[in-house]
Amino acid sequence: MKYFNSKELWLKQLSNTINNPYELLSLLKLDNNIKLINNIKTKVPFSFKVPKIFVKRMKLNDPNDPLLMQVLINIKESRNFNKLTKKISSESNLIKFNLIHKYNNRVLILLNNSCAIHCRYCFRRDYLKDISNIKNNMNYIINYILQNKEINEVILSGGDPLMIRDKNIKLFISMLEKINHILILRIHTRLPIIIPSRITNDLCNILINSRFKIILVTHINHANEIDSNVINSMNKLNKANVILLNQSVLLRNINNNASVLANLSIKLIQAGIIPYYIHLLDKINSNIHFLVTKTQANKIMRDLSSKVSGYLLPKLMYDKK
Questions:
Q1: Could you report the per-residue pLDDT of 237-247, keeping only the tens digit for each?
Q2: What is the pLDDT of residues 168-178, one digit of tens each?
Q3: Which domains does the chain have, with CATH numbers?
Q4: What mean pLDDT is predicted for residues 292-307?
Q5: Which of 88, 175, 185, 268 could bond 273 through an S-S bridge, CB–CB 3.0 to 4.6 Å?
Q6: Higher pLDDT residue, 320 or 17?
Q7: pTM attached to this predicted model
C-alpha cells in the first residue's frame, strides 16, 4: 500500500474518482430511479467525472440534489438544438498559444486542459482537448506580456490551474514576477471547492511570499458545496493575505431562485469569500437545458437584492452580443 503525506492528500483524493454514472447513482441510493437511469444511457462526448469527496456532500435518495444535477449526464445534452448546432463559445476563437487578450490591462492564460470534476454546463467542454501544453508556449506568453506594458494583471485559468502541482505553480509565478508591469495575479479555480485539501501549506507559502497581489476566484454555485473542509481551506488562504471572490453560474433548477442565492451569499461570507459575479450561461449546443433567460435573471437579482445586504449581492454578468 502506498501512503500519502499531507502534501499529497489532494492527489490521493483526486485519484479517488467516480467515472461511471451508474456507480454514482448506486452510492446515492438512486439506482432504481428510472428517469435518471434513462438519462445517463445517452452517449455524449464529454466524459463523466466526479471525485468521491464531492459526492459526500450530495444527499441520499434525492434525484434533485443540486450538486448531483451539476454533474450527472442528461439525455438533453445529446439533443440537436437548431440555433446552436456545432456552436462553441466565442472565447475559443480568441485562444492563441494558451493566451487570451480580450481586455487591455489583463490577459488570461490557460495553464492546462484538465479539471477535477466534469460539470455538465461547462462552456469550454467542447474545446478543452484543443488547449496546448503550456510548456510549449511559455516563451511566447512571456514575450507577449513583456511587449504589452499596458497589461498589469494575469489571470490563470484552464481547465483548472490548480491541477498543476505546487512546484510548477511556484516556477510559473516566479517567471511572471520578473515582468515589472505585472502587479496582480488572479487565479480562477474550482478545485479547492471540490477537493479542499488542494490548499496545501506549500501553496499558501508560495502565494504569501509572492510580490503580486493575489486574488483567488472560487466557483461555487450552491451553498451545499461549502462544508467545514472548504471553510478551513478558505481560512488558510485568508491568513495568506489572498483576496477571495466567488463567481457562480445561474443554472435552471439548481440555483435560479433568490432564496437559494441568498443562502449561497451568506454561506460564502461565512467562509471569508465575497460574492463577486453571477454569470448567465455561456451557451453551447449541449448545455441549453441549464439556461436561465436574461428576463428571468434580472427578476431573480431584483428579488435577491431585497434579501441580502449590498455587499452580498453579486453582479449579474452576460454576453452583450
A1: 999 999 999 99
A2: 999 999 999 99
A3: 6-78 (no CATH), 86-317 (3.20.20.70)
A4: 97
A5: 268
A6: 17
A7: 0.91
Bigger pLDDT: 43 vs 169: 169
> Which of the pair, 127 or 192, is modelled with greater confidence?
192
C-alpha cell at 248: 457562480
In terms of DSSP H, where are the helices of the chain?
Answer: 9-15, 21-27, 34-40, 52-55, 68-71, 138-147, 166-177, 191-194, 201-208, 228-239, 258-270, 294-305
Long-range contacts of 83-90 (CB under 8 A, 24+ apart): 84/283, 84/284, 84/285, 84/288, 85/285, 86/285, 87/283, 87/284, 87/285, 88/126, 88/127, 88/284, 88/285, 89/123, 89/124, 89/126, 89/127, 89/282, 89/284, 90/319, 90/321
Q: Cell for 91?
A: 472565447
